[in-house]
Every structure is written in structure tokens, then in C-alpha cells.
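Phosphoribosyl-ATP pyrophosphatase
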Amino acid sequence: MSQSDADLSVLNEIYDVIQDRKHNPVEKSYVCSLLNHNKGIDKILEKIGEESVETVLAVKNKNREDIVYESSDLIFHLLVMLAANDIQLSEIADELEKRRS
């Protein structure tokens, strides 16, 4: 496994944890609170909107540390949204591969 593959494997690991929380809820889990929130998907989408704005502001302010931090939050919440909609990371990878061709 190359270094870049190892770095990206964390996305699969996090996605697997999110899927596990979806199917095996854990009390006081942040992921479970998002997935089981009484507002449904709206709470997840609200977080994606919030993290998107924070990422854009970090880029605008040219703050590398904040860009990495906020992008990580955004990607995490996108992973939760994908899991909530039963979309596998492989589907995203397939779509990106199609676009690369």
C-alpha cells in the first residue's frame, strides 16, 4: 500500500464506523445523534452547509491549518450524509473514475 493509499484508507475506516453506528446505535454517539435526529436528514444537511461555509472562509482567509480542519469536518459530514442515504464510497469512486476517463 502506498503512502497515499494508507492516508485515504482512513476515509474507509471512518465510513465503516458511521455505517456501524447506523446499524448498531451507541448512546451518546455524535454520529447516532445526527442519523437519529428528529429533524432527519435536515440536521445532517445543516451541518454540511455550516462546514461548507467555514471551509470557504478558511480558504478566503488563506489559513492553511483552518482549511485542513474545516475540510475534515466537511468531509466527515458528507460521509454521514452518504451513509444516511445508503450510498457506498465505491459509488463515489466509480463516478470520479468515469469523470477521469
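thats it. DSSP finds five helices and no strands in the chain. The chain has a mean pLDDT of 93. bye
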